[in-house]
Amino acid sequence: MSTTPSIQLCGHKVGPGEKLFVIAGPDSIESEEMALRHAHLLKGITARLGVPYAFKCSYDKANRTSGKSFRGPGLKEGLRILDRVKREVGVPVLTDVHETSHVGPAAEVVDIIQIPAFLCRQTDLVEAVARSGRGVNLKKGQFVAPKDIVHSARKAVETGNPNILVTERGSSFGYNNLVVDMRGLAQMREAGLVVCMDATHAVQLPSSSDGKTGGERRFVSLLARSAAAAGIDALFTEVHEDPDRALCDGPCSLNPQMFEDVVRDVLSIRRALGHEAG
């Protein structure tokens, strides 16, 4: 991998010179009505901003700090809800999988399947997701160097699926903290990868809050703007109508107005640098 060709996600070209692709939604499905409400809201915001958009939400958050943490409705019910979101709201949908047995059912519903950061080196899972034929969002593990995620991406591409998006979400910085090395975004693009910035998970304070993950929401905008200047093809954020009441990842989630402001800032920076398609 040495050049960065565009990939196809949900019928849109994503890559250098293309429009910013936006992935946003609540961390997890708290209820059917909640998922539908957020999808309608975010569809309206992204349509107003003129950016291609995919709704993200998880049916099962398996990577929990504590066994008592909220996980979601599970595979069967969660996919039913995401299918309804896709049909009724008219938006593409992304969700994550944690087991190879979930890939087939998920691929019947969603447009993009996400490989969680902790599982980015799990060969069987990476290859199964890529073979599904859906778009792939490969989260770069907190323990993986930018140049090393190329190997995981290659596992996916070698199945015959070129539509692999690699998402930066911060690297472990001692205990209970993450840091984003903006050089990594350039390194991944130089390696031929189409790159996304997850600006909300990147402000997590992992396992820092008595069995829960904390976060520093106030830095999301800063990281998103910095990533836009460094050069990204897509932006990932978690958005909740009331982040302080979210059942998962509330401390690093944006409210809808913050989300709109962040995307506007990213688009302005991309236009100023000539990265944004007309």
Can you give a write-up of this model?
The chain is 34% helix and 18% strand. The protein is an alpha/beta fold and 278 residues long. An 8-stranded parallel β-barrel has the order 3-4-5-6-7-8-11-14, surrounded by 6 helices. Strands 1-2 form a two-stranded antiparallel ribbon. A two-stranded antiparallel ribbon has the order 9-10. α1 packs parallel to α8 (256-272), α4 crosses α5 and α7 packs parallel to α8.
Q: What is the rounded Rg? A: 17 Å
Helix content: 25-40%
Topology order in helix (H) and strand (E) letters: EEEHEHEHEHEHEEEHEEEHEH
SS field, number of helical segments = 8
- How many strand units? 14
Strand content: 15-25%
Offer a few descriptive terms.
alpha/beta, 8 helices
Indicate the topology:
Blueprint (H helix, E strand, L loop, with lengths): L6 E3 L2 E3 L6 E5 L6 H18 L3 E4 L18 H15 L3 E4 L3 H8 L4 E4 L7 H9 L3 E5 L9 H9 L6 E5 L2 E2 L5 E2 L3 H8 L3 E5 L5 E2 L8 E2 L4 H11 L3 E5 L17 H17 L6
Parallel strand pairs: 3-4, 3-14, 4-5, 5-6, 6-7, 7-8, 8-11, 11-14
Antiparallel strand pairs: 1-2, 9-10, 12-13
Helix pairs in contact: 1-2, 1-8, 3-4, 4-5, 7-8
